[in-house]
Amino acid sequence: MSGEDPTTLTREPDTELDLRGVICPYNFVKTKLKLEAMEQGQILSVLLDDGDPIRNVPLSVSNEGHTVLSQDRVEGSYRVLIRRRDDE
Q1: Which of 21, 27, 40, 69 is the most buried (most CB within 10 A)?
Q2: What is the SS3 assignment for the chain?
């Protein structure tokens, strides 16, 4: 598929993590571990509950150097797309 920009928001996530029902800080820890196991530039889709999880996890992964591509409300929870950072 030549000419396709891999950074577009239409790209399908490489893997998904369903963390609905997981409390802070465990949802961030699981997200961080999953990102560390992924290749640079891959996209992780994380399902999070409303409240503390959607407030804290995107901020925390951004602080780790990853890129939050989008946050969409999906059936009472949130789907967050995160692109893994490039290691130095």
Answers
A1: 27
A2: CCCCCCCCCCCCCCEEEECCCCCCCHHHHHHHHHHHHCCCCCEEEEEEECCHHHHHHHHHHHHCCCEEEEEEEECCEEEEEEECCCCC
